[in-house]
């Protein structure tokens, strides 16, 4: 699919000015941000740019440089920046004089959004579901989904997985697997059972492949069915169809089907966290679609609001046992987000952007996989659709029993910096922060994909040379 053509100079970004690497036009703003904002800043630390304009996959900074955005608001901007259908939908609401803040009251805008959402949901779920507007973030929706499951089942326990990320509120953090972000805010949850996720490169059972998947599925079954397992029947099992922050780790299709079958058999609601995977990102409308699985609960945010804050929970009507006011929030009725979201969902469906993401994702993964022969620091390339991860490893390290090399977080950070210096925005995730994550908009053009591959190759050249130079000097010294 063609994308808005970037200016000619965008495919040949200017070099970062000498000095500390922070462009002069941005320095005062960045300095004030550092002085005024909290130490919890994340993206601002690693991506020292000041966006002033944006369109499609491109951001223009206060320094006058253009950047190819392969972060897309952490996957929020499915159609890229300022897409005409999104801007038009927002402008129409503003021009209409409609109220912008309505709590959870019914409005024509909300009614239209709900219709658009039902039109893209898995038919089995859409036919008999309820929709809860949880608030502005995915974490709010995760909290609501957990509360819903506990209310409906009368049970407290939860099953979640290693490597998971479900948000930053206390309940969502308890489900999250990353120790660094959980502590000291959440020391532990006595009602949570953590299960091993079948990682394709770092198998928690040391088996790998189908054997590792089978071991993980068997472990879940044992916990549920063994009366001596010590794990009571849970209120819900919470899973990401592709772990995003965990390093772009797709749930194997057969494993996810097994999980669905087991939870259905024992009356345990399956909650699919589709905050990052939903609405075409993985090459299907939803991440669970790859396995042909329909969960009991879907948590949706990011792209669902067309780039504006919105989060919803969709669940089977049989679970709707909440009392009035059981889960509320002031900002549940963001009319601009609902208008932008409805326009986005319809555009994704009408333009076949899920299929486009699958096609372009296969091309990118195929080309990036070829890079592995040239760059040993690429331990694995994986992902689905336009949700791609490159695991950065130490080629000189000691491999484990399955051949996986140690993570190389310093090299991953250097790669991210080299990409930014060449005008490409990307971020890290995964174990030890050593997975380069690519989340470009679903509207990414073929020319922009080629540009990304070229820039990434040049950045890998630099990082590989820097890592090889000390070893080469040591070899010379030995001679």
The number of domains is 2
Spatial sequence of strands, sheet with the most strands: 4-12-11-10-7-5-6
Structural class from helices and strands?
alpha/beta
Which class of the largest domain in CATH terms? Alpha Beta
Annotated CATH architecture of the largest domain: 3-Layer(aba) Sandwich
Shape: globular
Q: CATH superfamily membership of the largest domain, which one?
A: Type I PLP-dependent aspartate aminotransferase-like (Major domain)
Question: Would you report the number of β strands?
Answer: 17
CATH fold description of the largest domain: Aspartate Aminotransferase, domain 2
Tally of contiguous helical segments: 15
Model regions low in confidence, pLDDT < 50 over at least 5 residues: 1-23, 470-479
Residue-averaged pLDDT, rounded? 90
Give Rg in angstroms.
Answer: 23 Å
Which range best describes the helical content: under 10%, 10-25%, 25-40%, 40-55%, 55-70% or over 70%? 25-40%
Report the sheet with the most strands, covering strand number, pairing sense and barrel closure: 7 strands, mixed
| Spatial gap, N to C terminus | 55 Å
Task: Give a structural overview.
The chain is α/β, with parallel strands linked by helices. The chain folds into two domains: about 25-85 and about 355-479, Alpha-Beta Complex (Aspartate Aminotransferase, domain 1), CATH 3.90.1150.10; about 85-350, 3-Layer(aba) Sandwich (Aspartate Aminotransferase, domain 2), CATH 3.40.640. It is built from 15 helices and 17 strands. The protein has helices at about 25-35, 45, 70-75, 85-95, 110-120, 125, 140-155, 170-175, 180, 210-225, 255-265, 335-350, 355-375, 410-420, 445-479, and strands at about 50-55, 60, 65-70, 130-135, 160, 190-195, 235-240, 240-245, 250, 270-275, 295-300, 310-315, 380-385, 385-390, 425, 425-430, 435-440. Helix 4 (about 85-95) runs antiparallel to helix 12, helix 13 (about 355-375) packs parallel to helix 15 and helix 14 (about 410-420) crosses helix 15. This is Diaminobutyrate--2-oxoglutarate transaminase.
